[in-house]
Amino acid sequence: MIAYVDIISGISGDMFLAALIDVGFSLNKLKKELSKLEIEFEIEAKKEKDVIEGTSLYIHSEDKKERGLKEILKIIDESSIDEEVKQKAKEIFRKLAKIEAKIHGIGVDKVHFHELGAVDTIIDIVGSLIAMKGLGIKKLYSSPVLLGKGKVKCRHGILPVPAPATLELLKGKPVIFSSIPAELTTPTGAALLSMAEFSHPEMEVARIGYGMGKKKLDFPNVLRIVIGREIDKSGIYVIETNIDDMNPEIFPYVIDKLLEAGVLDAFVMPVVMKKGRTGFLLKVLATHEKMEEVKKILFEETTTFGMRFWKVSRDKLERKVVTVKTKYGEVRVKIGYYNGKVANISPEYEDCRRIAMGKGVAIKEVYEEARKKASSLI
Fold first, then answer.
1. What is the CATH architecture of 236-312?
2. How far apart (Å, rounded) are the C-alpha atoms in residues 196 and 378?
3. Which secondary structure element, helix H or strand E, spans residue 93, and what is its range?
4. Would you list the domain boundaries of the chain?
5. pLDDT tens, 76-126?
6. 318-377 is classed in which CATH architecture?
7. Which ranges constitute the DSSP H helices of 116-261?
8. Whose CA is closest to 11, among 230, 176, 136, 154?
C-alpha cells in the first residue's frame, strides 16, 4: 500500500497522525503501542467539522520537560515498540537536531528541542510511524507543501514564518509560498514529510482520511491522506478466467479481438475443473493501461462471471527485425540477442505463409531459407 499526502492547508504532526486515525488506524491500538514509551500522556481523537468532517487529535500531558537528542533517543531505544519504527523515529529526531544546531550555531549535543522535544511532538512522530506501519503503508507521496507568512513566538523569541527549521527540512522539496498570515506547516510536519516522495502517483484509491488543524482559516484547515495500491503503468499483468459453458468456436474470435486491442499475448488451455468438468483456461498478457479494455472484451464476448489478474515480472531478449531476400521473396526475420549473442532467429509466420501459398512450396522450406539468409547477415 502507498499513501498520498494531499496538502490542502499545510501540515503539522498532529494533523498527520489525526489523518491516519481518520483513515482507519485504531486509536486503541495507537494508545497501546505508545504506552511502551516511558512518558506520561493522554491522547484523544474527536470527529469535527470544518466544511469537511475529519478527525482532530488532542494530546494532554503534565510533562513539560525540555529534552536533548540523547534523552529522546534513550526514550525510544528503551521502549519495546517495533524496531523498524524505532529506527525511523531516531532518524527523524537526528535530522531535527542537526537542523536546530545549524540554525542556532551550536553543537548537536547542545540542542534542547523546547517545542520539538515536547511530549506531543514525540507522540506525533512515533505515533505516525506506528500508524503507517499498522496500515501497511510502504511508500509515502506528497503534494507540494503550502507555507504561510508572518511571525511565530517560540522559546528562542520571535521567528519568521515559515520557521527556519521548516524551510531547512524542506530544502530540495517543492513548496508554495502563500500570503496567508499563519504558520501552516510546522517543523514536525516538515520532518514527517522527509519520508515522502514529492510526486503524483497513479493509484487505486482504497481509503481517504482527513486530519483537522487547530487554526481557524478562511478555508478548510484539513490534511487529506489517500491510501491505496500503486499502479505501475510499465508493469505486465496476467489476466485469466476459467470457462466451461461456452462454444469453443468463439475462442479464436475472442483471441483475435484481444490481440487487435493491443494485448501482448492471449491463448487458451484445456483444463479439468471442479466436479470433473472439462473446460478452458483463457489467459491474457497485457500492460496495465489495457486492463479495462481486456475486462470489457472478456465480460462482453465470453460467458465468464469473473477473472483473476496479477502483476508479473518478465525478461525478454534484445531484438531487432531484419528483412531478408530469399529465392522465394522477401521475409521479415526477428533476431533475439542474449548478452550480445544471437539466441534465436525467427522468420515471420505471416510472410512465410503468404509466400508458401503464393509459390506453391512447403512453408517449412520458406522458413529454412529465411533462417539461413538471416544467419548469413549476423
1. 2-Layer Sandwich (3.30)
2. 49
3. helix 83-104
4. 2-230, 236-312, 318-377
5. 999 999 999 999 999 999 998 888 888 877 878 777 665 544 788 899 999
6. Roll (3.10)
7. 119-134, 164-169, 187-192, 250-260
8. 176
